[in-house]
Design a protein that fits this description.
The structure holds two protein chains of two kinds. By secondary structure, chain A is mostly helical. Chain A contains 17 helices and six strands. Chain A has a domain of 170 residues. A three-stranded antiparallel sheet of chain A has the order 1-2-3. A three-stranded antiparallel sheet of chain A has the order 5-4-6. In chain A, helix 1 packs antiparallel against helix 14 and helix 9 crosses helix 14. The longest helix of chain A is centred in the N-terminal third of the chain and has 22 residues. Chain A is globular. Helix content of chain B is 21%, strand content 14%. Chain B has a two-stranded antiparallel sheet with strand order 1-2. The longest helix of chain B is centred in the N-terminal third of the chain and has 27 residues. The N and C termini of chain B lie far apart (79 Å). Classes of the chains: A mainly alpha, B alpha+beta. Chains A and B meet through strand 1, strand 2, helix 5, helix 6 and helix 9 of A and helix 1, helix 3 and helix 4 of B.
Chain lengths: 322, 280
């Protein structure tokens, strides 16, 4: 997918069905082969399911990293070991400034005066997350993501029991909010979004102790359990968009192999941002190998759930070189 | 293109409406966070080196690095009831004042955005009454080659708010711990340990006329005890001394709040007016 197309989808654009001219000859060949060989492939898919089952490899790794990073913040303060001082909005790792991109943006717009340390910290984090995969910040670091995953299991359970149903918002909402919060910061001179940021609130609560602000976090968890699946991360949080833009440039992506795919759709059921996985729908992939778009949080749930190894992590450029 | 069914169109319409309401609600919540500021119930004392309040709120990134470096844990972070101030540092001096135990105003050093700063950019607002006439001299460093604090503005100023409660004005002394039992505030006492602040209550006093505010003040020449004329030639009421004195705050006061913290009366006779400047 082109960067331009990936950006359009990131901002809430609908995923387009590809035109006939978009398909590579290789992709056409595989699609054709699958059509000819339907029965055989279904049997093969059954077999794959039997063999593979559901792995939790990437989820476990990710949870371990997320907990470790947040624990490092907490312990740095509590035990005064000073490895990672501050919180997720801004910190210092062994003395090097790290500044969250969205918080930096809010402060720069509100304050209109930019300090060298702020620029250094922001640039460092920008480069870091270009290298690490953009929205991987969301799924591998943000503490709200972990709580939301647990709330999501509860939501899915309730949906299964027909107690609640999922109410989707328009994906373009996040981009609109991003813009409005940027304008608000500039016009009012207050970092308005920071007041509402679940990431900031949770990170500070973990490190400096709980407060009233946790009620705001609780409110969103309840919304996500009873009303709308993963609402904050999917439709509202501007931080996700900021890191999504970084992800446009990142070589760390989830890759897709058309040949290995049986189009069963398990991956799209577990995905936070299923629109990035529309290429796995039967007949949609325009090339034999595809990269999943920038909105992907690189959480690895799809990699874990795919029984036939069609989805995998890749580092563009590096993978070929290796 | 697949034809758009009426059902799908209705679904899309509902989703759009829901998004409008949801987005509007989040923006409204963002707007509501302004209310605590508009009401401005309490004026918080900000850490040393803080910009003027509006600039401070716009520049503070709410990371708490200042909190982490404070040797006496004087800085606390505000909660959601302070609206846009959520996550910003403040000092509750009666519980724990800044006594500059760190010598170098470490919180300023820790701040990544310049919300706390040694050198304020010229285009940012400064009130004349906040400017220090000269660099404050830290008594703990008085014998060092560089005895001053790198602090160009005060954060507030001390005021004898309840003169009737002041023990010195009644000619009374003080014996024992400065604050009630269970009080946990820490101060640095040079005669105990240069680098390790100790609980204020572990340092009992025994003074014929109470001068705890003067005695504990970390800044040279910020406060002194001056004589008061006797009330009348007649002997003073029972329990009061014949020599009466009063604390007098001078222009060197930076507003750190140690006097309010150490004042043994309840409530404190001397208090800090946060963000108020010096008025001669």
């Amino acid at each position: 997918m082109s960067i331009k197309e990936s950006a359009r989808i990131l901002l809430g654009g609908e995923v387009r069905k590809p035109a006939a001219a978009d398909y590579t000859p290789g992709a056409n060949r595989v699609h054709e082969l699958k059509r000819m060989d339907g029965a055989n492939r279904r049997a093969l898919a059954e077999e794959m399911h039997q063999q593979h089952g559901h792995s939790h490899t990437w989820r476990n790794r990710r949870w371990a990293v997320l907990i470790a990073v947040n624990l490092l913040f907490v312990l740095s303060f509590w035990l005064d070991i000073q490895l990672l001082e501050g919180s997720l909005t801004a910190s210092r790792f062994l003395g090097f400034h790290l500044i969250d991109l969205n918080s930096a943006l809010q402060v720069m717009l509100a304050h209109k005066h930019i300090l060298v340390n702020l620029v250094i910290g922001t640039a460092t984090v920008f480069v870091l997350w270009v290298l690490l995969g953009g929205r991987s910040f969301c799924s591998w670091v943000c503490p709200y993501h972990l709580l939301a995953e647990w709330a999501e299991s509860l939501h899915l359970y309730l949906v299964d029991k027909k107690k609640v149903s999922d109410h989707a918002f328009h994906r373009g909402l996040r981009g609109v909010l991003w813009l409005l919060f940027a304008v608000l910061a500039w016009v009012t001179g207050y970092t308005v979004f920071e007041t509402l940021s679940l990431t900031g609130i949770l990170s500070r609560a973990l490190i400096y102790g709980p407060g009233l602000a946790l009620l705001w976090v609780l409110f969103w968890l309840l919304v996500e359990v009873f009303y709308s699946r993963r609402a904050w991360c999917r439709y509202f949080c501007p931080i996700g968009l900021t890191y999504g833009v970084v992800g446009l440039l990142s070589p760390v992506q989830v890759g897709y192999r058309l040949d290995n795919c049986f189009h069963e759709g398990d991956c799209r059921k577990v995905c936070l941002v299923p629109h990035v996985l529309e290429c796995v729908i039967k007949g949609r992939a325009t090339a034999e190998t595809m990269s999943i778009g920038a909105d992907c949080t690189r959480c690895g749930l799809c990699v874990d759930v795919c029984p036939s190894g069609a989805l995998h992590f890749e580092v563009k450029g590096l993978s070929k070189w290796l | 293109m697949a034809p758009i069914t009426p059902h799908k169109a209705a679904q899309a319409r509902r989703r759009f409406l829901r998004s409008l309401i949801g987005g509007g609600a989040l923006l409204a919540a963002g707007g509501a966070a302004w209310l605590p500021l508009a009401q401005a119930g309490t004026v918080r004392l900000r850490p040393p080196g803080a910009l003027e309040e509006d600039d401070f709120l716009s520049s503070c990134i709410k990371c708490g690095q200042c909190v982490q470096v404070c040797p006496v844990s004087a800085l606390k972070l505000a909660d959601l009831d302070e609206g846009y101030g959520v996550g910003t540092p403040f000092i509750e001096v009666r519980a724990q004042a800044c006594d500059f135990s760190c010598d170098a105003v470490q919180c300023i050093l820790a701040c990544p955005t310049g919300a706390l700063t040694y050198t304020k950019p010229p285009h940012l607002a400064t009130r004349d009454a906040m400017r220090m006439a000269s660099a404050p001299i830290l008594l703990a460093k008085e014998k060092d080659p560089e005895p001053t604090l790198n602090l160009k503005e005060r954060i507030g100023v001390a005021r004898l708010a309840r003169p009737d409660l002041c023990l010195a004005r009644q000619g009374k002394g003080w014996k024992g711990a400065a604050r009630g039992s269970g009080y946990d505030g820490h101060l640095r006492f040079m005669d105990v340990d240069r680098w390790r602040p100790i609980p204020l209550n572990d340092h009992p006093f025994d003074v014929p006329i109470c001068d705890l505010c003067v005695r504990t003040c970390p800044i040279k020449g910020a406060i002194s005890l001056e004589a008061l004329p006797p009330l009348s030639p007649a002997p003073p009421p029972a329990g009061e001394g014949s020599v009466r004195k009063t604390p007098v705050v001078h222009e060197a006061c930076v507003g750190c709040g140690v006097c309010e913290m150490a004042c043994p009366t309840e409530p404190a006779a001397i208090v800090i007016d946060p963000r108020r400047g010096w008025e001669a």
